[in-house]
Amino acid sequence: MGALVSMLWACETTRNPGGIQRDVVPPTIKLKASADTQDIAGGLNFSVTATDNLGLKDIRLTYTGGYINTTDTVFTSAVTNLTVGEKVNPGSGAGGLITIVGRATDGAGNFAEDTIRVFLVNVDALRVYLVQPAAGAVASQGKYIPVSVAAHQKSGVKRIGWLVGGVAGQTAKTADSLVQGSPPFPDTLNFVDSVLVTGSTGFFTIAGFAVDSGNRVGQTSPITVTILSVANDNTPPQIEQFLTLRSEANDTITVHATDPSGITVIGFAVTSTAGAPIRRDSVLLSGSSTDALKRFALGLNTLAPLPQQVVIQAFACDGAVAHNCGVTGGTFTIPSPTGPSRADTVTIVAGTTKTLPFGGRIVDAIYSANQRELYLTNPSLSRVEIFQAANSTFVTAGIPTAGPQPWGIALWPRDTLGAYGDSIVVANSGGTQLSIIDVTPGARVLRWRQDLPDMLIQTYRVICAPGCKTVITEYNVSDRPQYLATVCRPAGGTACAADSIFALYSTTPEPSNPAPFTGRATLRMEKLINPGNPPDTSRLFGHLFWEISGAVPSATSDTLRVVERRGPPYNVSKVTLTACAGVNVELASFALGDTTFARNSGNFTHGFFGEGGQVTAQFARVMSYTTKAQLLHGASTLRGCSTSGALGIIRDSGQVDVDFGMSPSVAVFDFISNTSTKVRSIATNFNGSTNAARADSVYYLDEGLRLKVTSPDSGIATGMDMNYNHNFAPSGPCPPSSPACGGSGSPNDRLLFVARFDANIDVFDTYFGYQVGTISIRDPIIGPLRVAKDASGNQLLFGITGRGLVMLSLPAFTNPLPAPPVR
Prior knowledge:
With about 800 residues, the protein is an all-beta fold.
């Protein structure tokens, strides 16, 4: 909101006692902007100062361009000071260059005007781009200048075009536009045209414009086109090139060439740093246009090894009789070979980057070799993105039925050998359920949503003074899932039992949670099974992992009690951990950080968890889980007892559900004493024997959370993952006692891939913590990194960067160890 402050005054300076003399003196008006460029969040701010020798009648303010409005202030009495408020709704689409005309009128009809222009910044405003011609364009009589205009406005663009300015009579047309019909108008509109040059000398300007659905007008800055004579043209075209000096093999190079005789050939050439030719590409043009702008794919897909430096230079030829040709100039206004030339030394790196279909933010991802697809959760848009590795494209439709704010994601286990089905499990952080989705291309439908229970955390005390009473303090914390992993238990053999497939998940850190759980998480488990309709509640099972936080009785510890509640239509409530179990906890250590990561092993027998985000403890924690340990739950664990000692007056009863597969508190806290800072990402290998936690260093832990080795890290970047075939432990015998250190497979599989902040990926041996290689990519990975094995056996690496998803086929690495490196 802006305020227009007007100071108005009138004075009578003369008297005419002999008669009435008409006022012919106009008023004065002055507009003054507080800044030439303003953000819409702060409103449109400027001041109006107006005066008149007798008295003002009216001040009119007219807004055109990126904001359409008129305000009219009429004075019916003497006014000496005025404040006018002008509201600009940030969501209105207003923005861009706004012209404000102020007109002051006095009582005799005399008026004066003043004009200012303000650029109002608004990301939702109409945006207009003049793609062609580019700066420095030249033309000649009888040739055409290409014109390309693009516009975007989320509420719709109904007209787009261009205008010719400068010296009159230089072009056959002075304007043209493309008009859309009736609403709804497209949010993006492009107009490609050309204009015939009729002048023989001088210059003219071209500007693009657009009109949105609210009749707001946006206009680009004009580009000056210089008209040159083509008589005896012996000068090569002016050429410039645009590309990034760190490029992927199929990135784009943009070549711009201009010449008064027209452009007939435009392209680029790639050589090695030693001058050996690698690739050359060009297109033939008619020569009728004096300004050409073309984009080419570098097409260096066969270049190996990577990274590798190459030299790239653009070229073009004109349509003159002499057929002048040149290369990129050191200065665009000086053609080469007339002036010095320019060539760019470019580093070609691994990977291909694809932008997300509709933007958003990716927080987790999982790959299915069955479908050759990567599934990525996009909570910003409440959808799961689908990337097809076979053709390196996103499925535009995605999965919009993935539930509210999908966060964690995992595959559906089939057996403990690593086989999985054609379904994914998605944690809906915007609700209290898990979505089970069939990702078969012909289906891609929601199979069911698994409702999660309300886990009530209670502390239990009995006070006897003089009579005995029970004091139960309840902590009803968030049940919304965040990250998740999937595991299963076989009934016999290796196939997963149908009723023993589980999701291990962390919860979202809600600020509404009671202390000490405010903004902190818990760790839980839910059996994945469709309860039917009406639901069969006997098939459901949930568990709060209290096992991670046991403590010896003390003045600050509490006796823990847990109640599992499932509301309608289930209508079930039961005590899953009775006070009779005598479990003591320190509640402050029971609550986890606000980002607790979860991953499962490739064979679905193990889980690994890392406490990230805002951690109140001095040290972050990790937890591990195995399905090979006993899980006790249900009616067989029912217990009742007196909780008031020998008096026996007060009793408690309920189940004592215990999962011996979760790492005990002693192991969790032992890891704390060995490391520090918050966990930024985690990884686990195929069989769960090696776990990696990334904090100030990369820490390698065995199945029992014992720290074995570390690797250096910057403490900044996040993503990491292990070789898909990694089946080793971080300790154990080495050759000749064992085929390889920590296992029996190839040491070339004993690798961890760790993203760096400088667009490189380090490759470490997880037994020694030693770096054995580096992969260079174009952009730093800022989100999840995943390594997967395709159906053909190739290993693929995926990572989220600031520009989208990067995918690369992992090269073969030769691990020089097992012998420890000489230090």
